[in-house]
Amino acid sequence: MSYITLHSTKLRHNYKVLDQLFKENKIEWAIVAKLLCGNTKFLQVLLDITDKEICDSRLSNLKTIKKLSPDKQTIYIKPPAKRLAKSIVKFADVSFNTELGTLELLSEEAVKQDKIHRVVLMVEMGELREGIMARNLMSFYDEVLQLPNIEVVGLGTNLNCLNGILPDEKKLIKLNRFKEIVEENSGEKIPYISGGSSVTIPLIFKNEVPLGINHFRVGETLFFGTNVYKDSVMAGMYQDVFTLTAEIIEMQEKPTIPSGNAGTNLTGETPTFSEEEKGKSSLRAIVDIGLLDIDHKDIMALIPGIEIIGASSDMLILDLGENSENLEVGDTINFSMNYMAVLRAMNSDYVDKKVDTDIITSGLSNDEFVCLN
């Protein structure tokens, strides 16, 4: 069975790097754990590392977190469905909201459950995903203030996830100004502006995050050590917190080009081949993972010279090249994974999940970002 490994020591290192960065800049941060898909083994590793709030967009995952750690503060980070109001109040200490009707239901449930439910009002800042239009924010806030057992603890925004709109100093200053206007008009204080996510982190190094932006929500940079703004890596952090391992179930010398009349394959494509490859062959291996569990375009073999040729529903086809490692049937091959690869594998019951606690001594990227002392 193929499996994904979480390298806990590398995750802990990445966490310490980010925690130091945010402390130095007087910014609070929460961890977006939706990538872990509610897996109890991996969630427990994360909970052992941090005392931060945990964010997720799946209610079942927040329920699992509360079961593992009842006192852990949880945040539901998408506008709740109305039908989930009761469970949102039960399992999320904070939720992100944009609809008054939904907030009214959350208020009713908070009264019934004798709780104060805290909310962040999301503001549209150009990404055109979730968010209250700025022109409606003041009247919206005034309405929310009237709801019993609802406490507005922040304004927030989402960028980069749908249309790729990047955060910049101008947008963040504007968001901070929205908060000041709301406070001036209402006489109420709003403690947080959750204006930052992984994509906003590079702005910290350029001193382009206004002082009012005091809360970040971070997932990708923690788990992958990525500079999302530049689509590159963060020096001093590990990019291989996760690895995928699959077993070779067949290895044969086969022609490079298939024979026979070609129709469409499983994914609706008709592959094309170069005539130059006619008569040639290559050493091919099949490993025990496929499109049901992974998109082969999102992974890369960690052994140099191995090329991914394609995949079917539950098999991945490789060209082993010179087979420099003298691999045989029964051996395993490790693959690096990007965010979408991990997300898909984590959501598959057919990929086992393992935790590695080995001590690591190398493998850090070493560009411009300074690591921990």
Automatic annotation (TrEMBL):
GO cellular component terms attached to this protein's record: cytosol
Pfam families, A to Z: Ala_racemase_N
GO MF terms held by the record: alanine racemase activity; pyridoxal phosphate binding
Domain Alanine racemase N-terminal stretches: 8-225
This protein's UniProt keywords: Isomerase, Pyridoxal phosphate
Gene3D superfamilies, alphabetized: Alanine racemase
Keyword Isomerase (UniProt): yes
InterPro entries in UniProt: Ala_racemase, Ala_racemase_N, PLP-binding_barrel
Cofactor: pyridoxal 5'-phosphate
PANTHER family: ALANINE RACEMASE (PTHR30511), LYSINE RACEMASE (PTHR30511:SF3)
Name of this protein: Alanine/ornithine racemase family PLP-dependent enzyme
